[in-house]
């Protein structure tokens, strides 16, 4: 079955931006793969957005910064703005975590969204595997939306294309083939990222 024929697969965000996921168990190399794919697609002239599904509580603004003090004082949302970048930090304070679709819908238009984590998300995915991974059970065995495997050791892909983890150009080429021709924004000079807590 082609990924395009799976009606449960989300190949594009509500604003039309193509989406690809990078999944794998802890220590599988998915963060390094994500970073290198971002670099590769930026070199190809694309504007990237990323989403990182964090496994633990995280803090993007800690210490004694003014904005951190705002949050500790009880502010539910704090915007930090400068001439180079801006960020919005939202404290859930017991409210439900935003779901995957809500996070994707909140991103600004880009040429490609790369999602790290979200194993159960209904998106096309590349699975990362390493010998040193803390878990070795293949995700592709139970997920028909995995379109390829990037690994540092010899494996049987069981019909899926298998790439060396360092063969970034070939992996990027596969993503472009699966998602179709990727559009190029007029000004593709930067990438954006969002991070949220991962319940997995």
UniProtKB/TrEMBL annotation:
One example GO MF annotation: GTP binding
Superkingdom of this protein's organism: Bacteria
Protein name as catalogued: Molybdopterin-guanine dinucleotide biosynthesis protein MobB
Any one biological process term the GO annotation gives: Mo-molybdopterin cofactor biosynthetic process
Pfam families: MobB
Limits of the Molybdopterin-guanine dinucleotide biosynthesis protein B (MobB) domain: 19-152
UniProt xrefs under Gene3D superfamilies: P-loop containing nucleotide triphosphate hydrolases
SUPFAM superfamilies xrefs: P-loop containing nucleoside triphosphate hydrolases
Stored InterPro entries: MGD_biosynthesis_adapter (IPR052539), MobB_dom (IPR004435), P-loop_NTPase (IPR027417)
């Amino acid at each position: 079955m082609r990924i395009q024929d799976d009606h449960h697969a989300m190949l594009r965000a509500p604003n039309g931006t193509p989406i690809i996921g990078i999944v794998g168990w802890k220590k599988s190399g998915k963060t390094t793969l994500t970073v290198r794919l971002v670099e590769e697609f930026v070199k190809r002239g694309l504007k990237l957005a990323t989403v990182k599904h964090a496994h633990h509580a995280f803090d993007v603004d800690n210490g004694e910064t003014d904005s951190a003090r705002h949050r500790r004082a009880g502010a539910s949302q704090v915007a930090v703005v400068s001439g180079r970048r801006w960020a919005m930090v939202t404290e859930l304070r017991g409210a439900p975590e935003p779901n995957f679709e809500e996070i994707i819908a909140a991103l600004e238009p880009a040429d490609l969204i790369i999602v790290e984590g979200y194993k159960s998300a209904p998106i096309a995915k590349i699975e990362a595997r390493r010998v040193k991974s803390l878990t070795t059970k293949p995700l592709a065995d139970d997920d028909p939306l995995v379109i390829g495997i990037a690994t540092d050791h010899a494996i049987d892909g069981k019909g899926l294309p298998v790439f060396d983890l360092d063969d970034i150009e070939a992996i990027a080429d596969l993503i472009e083939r699966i998602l179709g021709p990727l559009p190029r924004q007029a000004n593709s000079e930067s990438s954006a990222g969002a991070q949220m807590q991962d319940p997995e």
